[in-house]
Design goal:
The chain is of the alpha/beta class. The protein has 2 domains: 230 residues, Rossmann fold (3-Layer(aba) Sandwich); 34 residues, no CATH class. The protein has 13 helices and 10 strands. The strands form 3 sheets. It has a 6-stranded mixed β-sheet with strand order 5-4-3-6-8-7, with helices on both faces. A two-stranded antiparallel sheet has the order 1-2. Helix 3 packs across helix 10. It is globular, with a radius of gyration of 20 Å. Bound molecules: zinc ion (2 copies). The site of one zinc ion has 8 residues, from helix 1 and helix 2. The site of one zinc ion has 8 residues, from helix 13.
Length: 309
Amino acid sequence: MKCRRCKDKGKTEKAIIFLPHHNLSLCKDCFLAWYEKRLDETIKKMDMITKKDKIMVAVSGGKDSLALWYALTRLGYEADGLYINLGIDERNYSSTSGEKAEILSKRLNRPLYVIEVKKQFGKGIPDLNKLTKQPACSICGLIKRYFINKVALENGYTCVATGHNLDDEVATLFSITLSWDIDSLIRQLPILPEKEGFVRKVKPLIGFTEKENLLYCLLQRIDYIREECPLSTGVKTIFYKNLLNRVEQKSPGTKLRFYFNFQKKLHPLLPGQIIPPLHSCSICGQPTTSYDICAFCRFKQRVKHSLQT
Ligand SMILES: [Zn+2]
Ligand SMILES: [Zn+2]
């Protein structure tokens, strides 16, 4: 198999990957150029960020978010990192993923903010899950949302970028569609605009599959954590991802069509999002739709209460 881009330029180069959904075979150099150009085009077309933005990339130590941080920097965007150490000791998951984030921070010569869940709560996510009986993924989501917004705002960032890829977004959209959850469909956007007390959130990697981000990391020699989160086994999203991979294999391009046609054709027909009035949390001051205390501070109180009894 030969690289198509090279062939167009009258050169012959062996392709290292074939992307059936783009009907494109590429060599190493052409893949890297294609990836970065496509990322920049997505960002500009969707009006996600500009070179004037001060961007905070939420990095997990995995391939997607690290590829994003690296590629944004290569494209000339001002991007720093935030790593939230979830305190998952199983197979050294948290310490290893934190190391990967540190390594890239040094290589890019950009600061990395670190929040440690164990310092905040005295316990990591697995113990918080046992203590409060709340699902680990929901605790993790609550803590991440809270600190991502807080750290970004307190340090003057205009935007937060996350590493959600096409496979993630399609699996979520598929799951929501199966139950016709209209409220969640309304929120399925690659950009959540800023509003009072909330920083803008963007997902620049929505046009890339997991495999493409993985290949980008390998070719750029970005070291990332290979293991999936040990707490995420058996999660329904993984089942949907496998199912959708089989559909994609039979009919390449299905994922791109499903996601981008939803954004283009269906989302504009949905009613606008009803945003409940926001208040300041009486404990931490962060914006919340609750009247008194925000969900994060309520959770913190619950942990404290559980520890006393
Ligand atoms: Zn080529
Ligand atoms: Zn609060």
